[in-house]
Amino acid sequence: MQYNTPFIETLTAAYPHEARELFLAVGKRLEEEPEHGARFEKHLNAYMNEETEDLGDALTGMDVLAELMELSPYTVHFMLIMKCAELLKARYDAAGIEESVFWKGCDDLRCKLLECIECKGVPGTFVAGWNDGFLKMRRFAYGRFQYEVNEFNYFFDFLCSCGRRMVKGDTYINFHIPSSGIPLTDEVRLASYKEAYEHYKHMFPDGRVVFGCNSWLLYPRHREFLPKESNILRFLNDFEIVCWEQKHHFGDAWRVFGRYSDLAPEELPRDTKLRRAYADWLQAGNPSGSGFGFFVFDGEKIVR
What we know:
Elements: H1 6-11, H2 17-32, H3 34-48, H4 55-69, H5 73-95, H6 99-120, H7 132-135, E1 139-142, E2 145-151, E3 158-159, E4 165-166, E5 171-176, H8 186-200, E6 209-215, H9 222-225, H10 231-236, E7 240-247, H11 253-257, H12 273-283, E8 288-297, E9 302-303
Parallel strand pairs: 5-6
Antiparallel strand pairs: 1-2, 2-5, 3-4, 6-8, 7-8, 8-9
Helix pairs in contact: 2-3, 3-4, 4-5, 5-6
């Protein structure tokens, strides 16, 4: 198998130089060290082609390979995901899905790479299992966000302000917010909702798509301490909150503070408005949290 293909070179073109050079060097080793290359290819095929392994099994195989090659497992995990994405490209083409949607999905790899460099100090990914939805064509990127079909599974009904009642088993379109660095402005959010609407409206007979999201960004108490002009608050205001929880351990701290997330609140960096607001909030003894919410979209606007 050839590893440093034109696809890989294109995919990694915008990566940090050191990361790109590392991935190309590892690819060269896999080509020149047949035993290691065969082990890599075995798990790649078992996951993507034969479907005899799930992604967790394949990543366990990559852990063994990383040890044999004296590499970080995060790096080898990333190599696997890149080669999976290369095979996925042909499946997108065969399905007639716009090429821009494929490459937008691939940009999540770059986001995860930068997170790994920031938090772990090594090029790769520490959340490789997350890519299963992308690689199995269940999750698609439309504009700023990534979307997938989901089912409302709570034990209670939820009545949206527009009159749409969500009951157990109802379909909604779940979405995720990659750490691309693109601000969550009104224009960016609306453009993504409109693009996703076109791809999912056929699933909703009344032409109104129900979107849902579960995220630390939807913590309602953000309104108490984030700057009033924060795009996070504008994003939060798109939703009607179904439920939320508070946590005394901020498990998503790495999303705000990166490599500094384990520091005591008084030691956290305060070099951005978001970091300053969060550090002050936590230092005052307040909890973090997350929320789950819905909104109904008619193709042009959120319906209330």
